[in-house]
Amino acid sequence: MKWTSTRSDQNWVLDNFLKLSENEDTLHPGILAQRLERGYKYSDLQEVYSKIIGRRSYSKSWAKQGRKLNLLAEQATSPQTRAEFYHRAAMCYGRAQHTIKGKDHPQKIEYYHQMRVCWKLFEENHKSIRTVEGPNHSYVVMEQKRDDAPVVVVIPGMDQFKEEVLFPYNNPWFNRGFTVVVMEGPGHVSQLMKGNYIDVDNMSDAVAEVVSGLGLPGKAVSVVLFGMSFGTRWVIEAAARIGRPKIAACIGQMANVGNSKIIFEQAQPNFRRIFMEMANIQDEDKFDKYCDKIDKQLIKRAKQIHFPYLMVAGEMDELCPPEQTIEFIRENIPHGEVWMYEDCFHVMGEVCGNIYGPIADWARHVVEGHWEPKEETIMWIIN
Question: What's the predicted TM-score (pTM) here?
Answer without folding.
Answer: 0.93
